[in-house]
Design brief:
By secondary structure, this protein is mainly α. It has 4 helices and 4 strands; from the N terminus they run H-E-E-H-H-E-H-E. Among the domains are: about 90 residues, Transcription factor, MADS-box (SRF-like, 3-Layer(aba) Sandwich); about 60 residues, no CATH class. The strands form 2 sheets. Strands 1-2 form a two-stranded antiparallel sheet. Strands 3-4 form a two-stranded antiparallel ribbon. The C terminus is likely disordered. This is MADS-box transcription factor 23-like. Keywords: Coiled coil, DNA-binding, Nucleus, Transcription, Transcription regulation. GO terms for molecular function: DNA-binding transcription factor activity; protein dimerization activity; RNA polymerase II transcription regulatory region sequence-specific DNA binding.
Length: about 270
Amino acid sequence: MGRGKIAIRRIDNSTSRQVTFSKRRSGLLKKAKELSILCDAEVGLIVFSSTGKLYDYASTSMKSVIERYKKLKEEHHQLMNTASEAKFWQREVASLRQQLQYLQECHRQLMGEELSGLGVKELQNLENQLEMSLKGVRMKKDQILTDEIKELHQKGNLIHQENVELYKKMELIHKENAELQKKVYEARSANEENMASNLPYTITNGYDSHGPISLQLSQPHPHCSEPPAKAIKLGCIRRAMEQSGGKSKSRLSCTATLDSYNVQASAIK
């Protein structure tokens, strides 16, 4: 009779489990040795029992086998990482290419192109998208115009304030000029009055206030004893300020009139 097939599972009985471990451990070590000899392979075997006891086998040296294993493992891991990274970026490129194609198709549809393959529902969705986009554009435009209007109002207010300040400065300058003119006029008037008060009174002609009048007597005629045809009229008239247009009341105007006066006098005793 052949041996029955043993189920590959944990042996509950500790004694049976230990016996089985000893048998199979010996067979495993024997197979590792045969593999290294027959196939000229570098073999390293490490086994820990359930009680923590170590069993190992190395065809050359366990240290060299472990170092070679670590080195090859790192190289393999790097290769696997590079390959995995390349595959990852390939998937990313494919995904981005699909997104680009979708966006290009949507852009053409928004521009009114390639609409033949769309149904009523898709066209309605496209219309809604266009209306929403147009609404957003109008809102943005209104906001920009509002901001510009506010900025212009602020500039206008600043200019108005500057104009008010300039107007106030001009008024102040006009006021100062008026005061200066008043002072100059008062000083000039005072100077003229001082000069007029210091000048002596003069006898002037009533018709010409600037031309001097000279009074002369004609030469006497010895043989004529007649009285003068007309008397000498000498008058000194005090002119009122109403006729002189606001001149000083203290000024006297004396006029002398000589009408066809011929003095023929002889020696009067």
